[in-house]
Write a structure and sequence with these properties.
This protein is of the alpha+beta class and 599 residues long. The chain has 21 helices and seven strands. Strands 1, 2, 3, 4, 5, 6 and 7 form a seven-stranded mixed sheet that branches.
Length: 599
């Protein structure tokens, strides 16, 4: 497998913040490599299914070359970008082919194919209207859809009547009837001096009329075939290159091997930044990538010496590093399965807490550097920033103990950021849980949908293509327009030489759905309560050993963590840290959501 950095984790030998590497201590189990995770595979599949999502991935990671990538929790953003570029390149080719088929059809029919293009464009407009939030707009879309289908049915019947009449010299209409029907169909689309009248149909022979009119279903059949083949290629990519077995072979991923110099440069930067403990952030969204804030809370207590220390002992100052050293072993112990049965039975425990990831990170503002390549990513730079940040309590540079659990194959990611600060005989504890909700259902069902399509009979595939062919013209024009716009932004935007910025969005957050199931809610609560209890226990132990009172802190921490006072909550958050009032919906901000439709 290609050498990709993995997230740093604390081991017993580097609890103070140095070192790194995969942690497999105290009965723990290392999580799956982020470049091979199931969530990452579904994100790659989503680039073939949702054009709007794919375009936003490309815009954030490829067009805006100056933006530092958001932390990637449980996936590899570079691999998602590779498949997004590959999917767009293929779709641009299909879009050009479909538009070319319509153009050739217009030439072969002398422009008569335009009689079908208008209702097809109206169908695409009605589909867009019905996807809007306004009830009145959706009603307008439904009315337009009914009108368009009626218009299309009338046109198809008329065209077939003309073709049959023109080709049947003994029929009741004959060539005269064909000319009459043809002039009636074309009078609404052309003036008397257009090719429809003088040179197309009015004065042509019945055989010429039939030849022109029969080109209409022939061209439409060609468009249906292109749509059929395009859907088949996307399904084969998901069932083939993105199958679990082949996705595990990163070195032979075709999406990564044929992208070009620009992608190689961006891939190198993304993989150096996304797992680095030095996190470069945008001040408007500092924890971008971790998901939705989930009831962060803080607590301030006065440090009062205990009275039972005796005459020979006094309370000693407690530093933030002391607190970290007490908390980390308690968190690492969560990886140990409860004793039961044989050692083999204990080793087979599947609890995701066994894969708990614990590390320290320092957040720095993304601006102020001369170039993106100047971002400090070395272990030495992190050690220097950590040593300064852990005790300073600054605003822009912040040190966190970061604890993460990747549940449901990294499909539900719970990250808890913990920060301590002592100042003026006061100790402040800040806890900021964040949740990455499961991926959208269409992404999770990508394997099943691709398998169903590939194993369907020819009639089912033809019916699918026939249903989507009317909207192919409008969607192909939009796809080509987006591709040209993206190329234009790369060419004229000056992003390559721009000053570096923090991440604008997270491709993982873009793909998250707005809710989770009851099982997700139960696991979320369990992870959060367990981690927060260990954090409180560690702080209490550190204070006690240093000779300070702990009763007030322990009591207040329990009240706050169980639902007392919070810094903020996610909008309309229904996940709850306490034991009541649960629901299973957490809403995202509109800025992070993809607004397009799925293919």
């Amino acid at each position: 497998m290609t050498d990709i950095p993995v997230p740093h984790q604390l081991t017993p030998s580097d609890r103070g913040g140095g070192g790194g590497g995969t942690d497999d201590v105290l009965g723990g189990r290392p999580p799956v490599h982020p470049a091979l995770s199931e969530a990452g595979r579904m994100l790659c599949a989503g680039t073939y299914l949702d054009a709007a999502y794919r375009d936003r991935v490309i815009d954030e990671l490829y067009v805006h070359e100056e933006r530092i990538v958001a932390p990637s929790y449980g996936f590899d953003a570079a691999r998602v970008l590779a498949h997004a570029l590959r999917a767009r390149r293929a779709e641009l080719g299909w879009a050009a082919g479909i538009i070319g088929a319509w153009f050739i059809g217009l030439i072969l029919t002398g422009g008569f194919l335009a009689t079908l293009m208008l209702p097809f464009l109206l169908l695409s407009a009605s589909r867009w209207l019905r996807s809007q939030d306004s009830r009145l707009v959706r009603l307008l879309g439904a009315v337009l859809r009914v009108y368009t289908w009626v218009l299309l049915l009338v046109l198809v019947i008329a065209i077939l009547g003309v073709a049959l009449a023109a080709g049947n010299t003994f029929g009741p209409l004959g060539s005269v009837g064909a000319d009459v029907l043809m002039s009636g169909l074309t009078s609404s689309f052309a003036s008397s001096d257009d090719p429809f009248d003088s040179s197309g149909y009015g004065s042509s022979s019945s055989s010429g009329t039939a030849a022109v009119v029969w080109w209409v279903p022939a061209v439409f059949a060609a468009v249906v075939a292109l749509v059929w083949l395009q859907r088949g290629q996307a399904a084969r990519a998901i069932a083939g290159e993105l199958s679990p077995r082949r996705y595990a072979d990163l070195a032979n991923d075709p999406a990564e091997n044929v992208q070009g110099v620009r992608f190689d440069r961006i891939r190198r930067r993304v993989r150096a930044e996304q797992y680095n403990p030095l996190v470069m952030y945008d001040i408007n969204d500092p924890l971008c990538g971790a998901g939705e804030p989930y009831r962060p809370w803080h607590l301030s207590v006065e440090l009062r010496p205990r009275t039972d220390l005796g005459p020979d002992r006094k309370a000693v100052p407690v530093t933030n590093s002391d607190i970290v050293r007490q908390i980390v072993p308690l968190l690492q112990a969560l990886r140990v399965p409860s004793p039961h049965g044989s050692p083999e039975a204990q080793a087979a425990v599947l609890d995701r807490l066994r894969e708990l990831v614990i590390d320290e990170c320092v957040f720095l503002p993304g601006g102020g550097l001369p170039h993106r390549d100047a971002v400090p990513l070395s272990a030495e730079a992190f050690a220097q920033h950590r040593a300064a940040a852990i005790e300073e309590g600054g605003e822009r540079r912040r040190h966190f103990l970061r604890v993460r659990v990747g549940g449901w194959d990294e499909n539900l990611v719970v990250t808890v950021f913990v920060r301590f600060h002592t100042q003026g005989a006061m100790m402040m504890l800040e806890v900021a849980p964040h949740v990455l909700l499961p991926l959208r259902t269409v992404f999770q069902n990508a394997d099943a949908d691709a398998h169903r399509y590939l194993h369907n009979n020819w009639l089912g595939k033809a019916a699918w293509a026939l249903r989507h062919a009317p909207g192919s013209l409008a969607s192909s024009v939009v796809i080509l327009g987006r591709g040209i716009a993206s190329w234009w932004r790369i060419t004229t935007g000056g992003h390559g030489g721009a000053l570096p910025e923090g991440p604008g969005l997270s491709v993982r957050e873009l793909a998250s759905q707005d809710n989770g199931s009851l099982f997700h809610l139960m696991d979320l609560d369990r992870y959060l309560k367990t981690i927060q209890d260990r954090v409180v226990s560690g702080v209490t132990l550190a204070l006690h050993e240093a000779g300070w009172h702990t009763e007030e802190f322990a009591e207040r921490a329990i009240v706050v963590a169980e639902g007392g006072v919070f810094i903020q909550s996610a909008n309309n958050s229904a996940f709850s840290v306490g034991g009541s009032g649960h629901s299973n919906t957490t809403h995202h901000s509109g800025r992070r959501r993809s607004s397009g439709h799925s293919r």
